[in-house]
Amino acid sequence: MRETFTHQHHAHCESGVFASLLCHHGVDISESMAFGIGSGLFFSYLPFVKVYGFPLTAYRIAPGGIIKRASKRLGIRFKYESFRDEEKGMAALDLALAGGRPIGLQTGVFWLPFFPPAYRFQFNAHNLIVYGKEGDDYLISDPTLDRPVKCPSSDLRKARFSKGFLAPKGKMYYPVEVPRDLDYPKAISQGIREVCSKMLTRIHPLVGVPAIRAMARKVPAWPQKKGEKYAAGQLANLIRMQEEIGTGGAGFRFVYASFLQEAGDMFGMDELLSLSERMTKVGDRWNTFAYKAAPVCKRRRKGGAAYVELRDILLDCADQEYGIFSDLRRVKF
Amino acid sequence: MSGLGFIMRKDEVPQDQGILENYKEVVYAVDDQGRYVPVPSKGWSAKTEANELAWVGINLQIEKTRKLVLAGKLSPLAYHMELNHMKPGLLGKYVGFSRWRVRRHLKPSIFSRLKPEVLERYATVFKITADRLKTMDG
Fold it and tell me: I need a labelling partner for B86 at 20 to 30 A (CA). Which of A25, A120, A136, A162 fits?
């Protein structure tokens, strides 16, 4: 374990926290590698679950899942604690910090004062690292920001004990056992296999490529069915989930392409490198979707034909991803 | 950007004013050799616009509530609840009341008779004083 903690700037909070914590414990792992081994890539569209009034759309697996999977596959043991009592939760954090180790926390974004107001929504699964305390301020390394920040203890307490969907309940975690030799090939192939089987699921059209298709087909009907205004809001919601801070752009597709590239280099496998290139192309397609959808949701461009065009882009994304994951599943390690 | 089929290149990563103000975020892009590198970005207009639209919706809701409070249809508690992006169920979890009890407190006649302890509980959640809870100043 290193003496002083070094802040790292990453695209995504959870894989970023994992990479930063492991670096501190002497394991040099990139964020995209953590994301890939943790099977972070996903797609899910759940019209019956509403977040801020719009259907839940996720481009990544459920919060906490990346660290859980990546640590298990690499043989790293994490200690997790959560608390009912706020006092006890804060005391435990202080105690753990006194032991000289950086601590990962799950927090509610709305209560974190260092974020700009435009970023502060009621979202309870933001991960960050606390690496010290100065007076009443905690020293925070938030991987999605370019520099460390400070947070008063009363605010951090609110953020750790925010309520509602995915309530963190003061959850804190840190690695306790880090083996010297990590079995990357095994972990990587496990990570890839899970992403493939989830994206290619045929059980129901709520997750994976079938969900992209199911959502895409509904897009042209949005303006008539729900009204122009709601349809615009729904598009904006899609863009936000796909592009906003912590995604690395294109709904994590670029992060995953980076992972495939790194894995391809590690094994000297050209198949993975060419799959990485194809993943980049899909990422570009998702970006084109956001680029073309933005004027529609600002209603600079009238609905109708625009929604049909957006559907076609999404269907193209689905087709390309279907091809990529089908081929990725056949890769032998 | 190279037309619309834009491959994200290191030197073409959008640097529009974003929602992170003076912070930067990381975007994954490829360099000249096709190698992936994390690149700091100020933001991208497409997502800034989507974020703005989300806030238009939220602010509209706050404004609607503010008018209802002024008209005497709702208590100021409703305004502060909207300001904190909450619904009665979520606010109830913070103060330890049931959803219907919070809903009752949104009625002006009932709100005006609330005990100071109850007001204090709400005020703590919103990080304001109990006196300000009775008004709509932020």
Answer: A136
A294 touches chain B (CB under 8 A): yes
Give the residue from A155, A177, A199 where a domain finishes.
A177
Decide if A257 touches B, using CB distance below 8 A: yes
Task: With H, G, I as helix, E, B as strand and everything else as coil, classify residue A54.
Answer: strand
Candidate from A9, A232, A239 with C-beta closest to B40:
A9
Dump pLDDT digits (tens) for A69-91.
999 999 999 999 999 999 999 99
Task: Confirm whether A5 is domain-assigned.
Answer: no
Task: Report the distance separating Cα A29 and Cα B122, nearest Å.
Answer: 45
Q: B98 to chain A, minimum CA–CA distance in Å?
A: 13
- Considering the domain architecture, whether residues A168 and A57 belong to the same structural domain is answered as yes
Q: Which chain B residues are Cβ-neighbours of A294 within 8 angstroms?
A: 45-47, 49-50
List the domain range (segments joined by +) for residue A77: 13-177
The answer to whether A289 faces chain B, any CB pair under 8 Å, is no
Q: Which of B37, B41, B38 is nearest to B20 (CA)?
A: B41
Q: Is the Cβ pair B5, A284 closer than 8 Å?
A: yes
Query: Which of these ranges, A300-304, B56-60, B76-80, has the smallest mean pLDDT?
Result: A300-304
DSSP conformation letters of B98-136: -HHHHHHHTSHHHHTT--HHHHHHHHHHHTS-HHHHTS-
CB-CB contact of A236 with A297 (8 Å): yes
